[in-house]
Predict the structure.
Amino acid sequence: MDLITKVCGMTRADNIFSVEQLGVDMIGFIFYPKSPRCLCQLPEYLPTRAKRVGVFVNESKENIFMYADRFGLDYIQLHGNESPDYCRSLHAGGLHLIKAFSIALPKDLLATSAYNGPCDYYLFDTKTPQYGGSGNQFDWSLLHCYNGSTPFLLSGGINSYSAPAIKEFHHPRFAGIDLNSRFESAPGIKDVERIETFLKEIINLKS
């Protein structure tokens, strides 16, 4: 089990640097103005090794291409109601995509089939009135109903005590985990020590 590790919702340069030094694969920046973790300005440091992921909600294609260029984004994560055609258009423009889906019932997985092709990964998150960031975990057993070909990341409420559950979760398309609000000292500021301890547990689980 060689999991992708993604830490999302980062805002401060020194915090970004410290988390990157832990060896995470992806670091996410939220460009949704209503999020308490919205990145309002270019930080003094951006990852040089970890992949940069920009998170957007129902944003215009023009703005996404602008942010992708300005921040040197490796992936675009779409967390809103973006259509398959919209995703294909971004993909045709050379962008790598992660499409988020909110999951509460098995039927919520049906929407994924229309997005096969343009998306590198799906991200399965807890259904909430907002666009993610609830800190709550959904029932991962629902994902056994997913039989698509696109690999996925698990999100939604993963916390310091989730390592055993991650060890027990098996799916042929399970590619990685997304850490956010449960590893924070304040919105947008990650607890580096807590993440490090958790990642060491995950590494031990891989061996």
User: Anything to note?
Assistant: The domain at 4-206 is CATH 3.20.20.70 (TIM Barrel).
